[in-house]
Amino acid sequence: MSTITKYEVTDFETFHNVIDNKLTSTSKTRRAVDPSTEKELGDVPVSTQEDVDSAVAAAQAAFPSWRDLSQDDRAAYLSAFVDAIDAHQQQFAELLGKEAGKPPQAVGIELFLLSNQIREIIKFRLTEEEIENTDVRSIMLRHVPIGVGVGIIPWNFPMLLGIIKLVSALLVGNTFIWKPSPFSPYTALKLGELGAQIFPKGVFQVLSGGEDLGPMLTAHPGVGKISFTGSVATGKKIAQACAPTLKRFTLELGGNDVAIVLPDADLAATVPKIATLAYLHSGQVCFAIKRIYVHEDIYDAFLAAFVDFVKTLKSGGPADAEAALGPIQNSMQYAKLLDMYDQVSKQGWKSLTDSRIVAEEQFGPIVPLLKWSDEEDVLKRANASLMGLGGSVWSKDVKRAERLTRRLEAGTVWVNSHFEVGPQVGFGGHKHSGIGVESGIGGLKGWCNPQAVWVRN
């Protein structure tokens, strides 16, 4: 790789697409909004079909030589990339706070997780698996990269969720095009600008655009895989769009995560954790707790303690170092939350068990607390959702809690915790919460096609 050891981006005020390691402009631009101030941010490109074609062509051209590098060599590029990100941490922190509306605490969490994700994933290696080895023949299973990959990234974690896709795709030998959300494109474009100084041409590119950009990429015959994080409705559209060209895809979709609190739970320890994990990033997290089932014996005490704790959570924007909660990131999501809250009020609180607030993902700071008394009944209610991303059980009796988690229909389950994820293991959803996994060895394999190798001696 390049012998340059210092990579520098000095301008965090102007933004360009990154195509074939060149900063490119478009005739049309748009602006996103700082959700804390509702002021417009800088101009970003609005990509056209021509831009998409150019980026895909560059990625295709770069693929053979990038694929043929060793995993160690590709990891070295990624190591230089994360070092460069860390060196620009302050600039990225300020930009992330503005585009996502996150207070400093939340920004710091995302940047820490991002750096850790890259540094840990690049330690992994996909190796050939020996299936059979006799005097007559050998059979090996290997995993070969797909080709050009596209990551379609949501607005709630605009850096971290893209990095999870990028690092896995590149490490195993794919080239990658990053498509950020129109609501939060700024940090992605600067990551692309930094990456252009590090990776070979065409290996890592970033395209900003409007709502038509995603369909252009999913329909493109030169793209081999789409990795999408976002809503169930959009995920279904992506699956349909991939069908004509038989693209591979990974879908990490919505969640309606449940927390079941058993009657022996330690409220002093449990309530702050559950409340924090329900209101993290103002509830705008797929893995946030979105339904809380509390045993009737402790319901009133839990509710009182929960409300008291939530009152201590300070709201604020990127400039407020003490803030725990930021604004709703965009007007579209804000309108959805207002409608949901209005509908619940019209129904009356006693009808919560059938309410949209329970049946649908809120993706905001609205969390229902519901009573339960029978274990079989609460499991049935917990699993009634069409979504199955995560779920947790809270109790001093760890064995009982672990037994209950095994009956939850979800991709990740926890005991006395929630939203613990990391590069060690893949995460993904059951049912309508997705197909495939991100991160871990499973995430690496998701960026490959399996290939069986039969050799006759």
UniProtKB/TrEMBL annotation:
<keyword id="KW-0560">Oxidoreductase</keyword>
<dbReference type="InterPro" id="IPR016161">
    <property type="entry name" value="Ald_DH/histidinol_DH"/>
</dbReference>
<protein>
    <recommendedName>
        <fullName>aldehyde dehydrogenase (NAD(+))</fullName>
        <ecNumber>1.2.1.3</ecNumber>
    </recommendedName>
</protein>
<dbReference type="GO" id="GO:0004029">
    <property type="term" value="F:aldehyde dehydrogenase (NAD+) activity"/>
</dbReference>
<dbReference type="InterPro" id="IPR044086">
    <property type="entry name" value="LUC3-like"/>
</dbReference>
<dbReference type="InterPro" id="IPR016163">
    <property type="entry name" value="Ald_DH_C"/>
</dbReference>
<dbReference type="InterPro" id="IPR029510">
    <property type="entry name" value="Ald_DH_CS_GLU"/>
</dbReference>
<comment type="similarity">
    <text>Belongs to the aldehyde dehydrogenase family.</text>
</comment>
<feature type="active site">
    <location>
        <position position="252"/>
    </location>
</feature>
<dbReference type="InterPro" id="IPR016162">
    <property type="entry name" value="Ald_DH_N"/>
</dbReference>
<dbReference type="Pfam" id="PF00171">
    <property type="entry name" value="Aldedh"/>
</dbReference>
<feature type="domain" description="Aldehyde dehydrogenase">
    <location>
        <begin position="25"/>
        <end position="453"/>
    </location>
</feature>
<dbReference type="InterPro" id="IPR015590">
    <property type="entry name" value="Aldehyde_DH_dom"/>
</dbReference>
